[in-house]
Write a structure and sequence with these properties.
The protein is mostly beta strands and 85 residues long. 6% of the residues lie in helices and 35% in strands. It contains 1 helix and 7 strands. The strands form 2 sheets. Strands 2-1-7-6 form a 4-stranded mixed sheet, with no helix packed on it. It is globular. This is YlmC/YmxH family sporulation protein. InterPro entries: PRC-brl_dom, PRC_barrel-like_sf, Spore_YlmC/YmxH. It holds the Pfam family PRC.
Length: 85
């Protein structure tokens, strides 16, 4: 599988059943040549005029399955701040 093949797959979090997006880049270990994480661009702020939020880094250990058109990952959502519903 090539990087271009990964970039065309949508990432779904099986813990929340939500789409995270499509990977834009990968992080790899230079010594071993293995992929260590997928990097997904953060969501756009205010119609994209104010840039983007932080990138989402998905460790390779969180990937459950890579299918023909989706990548399933298992990541717990970050805790919500107190007072926000």
């Amino acid at each position: 599988m090539r990087l271009i093949d990964l970039r065309q797959k949508e990432i779904i979090n099986i813990c929340t059943c939500c789409s995270i997006g499509c990977p834009a880049d990968v992080e790899f270990n230079c010594r071993t040549g293995r992929i260590t994480a997928l990097i997904v661009p953060g969501p756009a702020r205010f119609c994209g005029l104010l840039g983007r939020e932080n990138d989402i880094i998905i460790p390779w250990e969180c990937i459950c399955q890579i299918g023909d058109d989706i990548i399933l990952v298992e990541m717990q959502p970050p805790p919500k701040p107190p007072g926000n519903c």
